[in-house]
């Protein structure tokens, strides 16, 4: 079981990443990152 745990966690993580991409989370994260970045610079 110990040898399988890293593989199972990797498969689970890749599945969650794929689910997030399929549901448009990339655009949401990008929008928030741009907003935070612009706020730090003092533009937004």
**Unreliable spans:** none
Sheet with the most strands, sense and barrel status: none
Query: Overall mean pLDDT score?
Result: 92
Helix segment count? 2
Instruction: Indicate the structural class.
Output: mainly alpha
Overall shape: elongated
Number of DSSP strand runs: 0
SSE layout and pairing:
Blueprint: H1 5-22, H2 25-41
Give a quick precis of the structure.
This protein is an all-alpha fold and 44 residues long.
Description of the structure:
- The protein is an all-alpha fold.
- It has 2 helices and no strands.
- It has helices at 5-22, 25-41.
- The longest helix is centred in the first third of the chain and has 18 residues, at 5-22.
- The termini are far apart.
- 0% of the residues are buried.
- The model has no long low-confidence stretch (mean pLDDT 92).
Name a few traits of the molecule.
0% strand; 44 residues; mainly alpha; 2 helices
């Amino acid at each position: 079981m110990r040898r399988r745990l890293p593989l199972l966690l990797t498969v689970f993580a890749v599945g969650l990443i794929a689910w997030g991409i399929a549901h448009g989370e990339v655009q949401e994260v990008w929008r928030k990152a741009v907003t935070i970045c612009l706020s730090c610079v003092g533009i937004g």
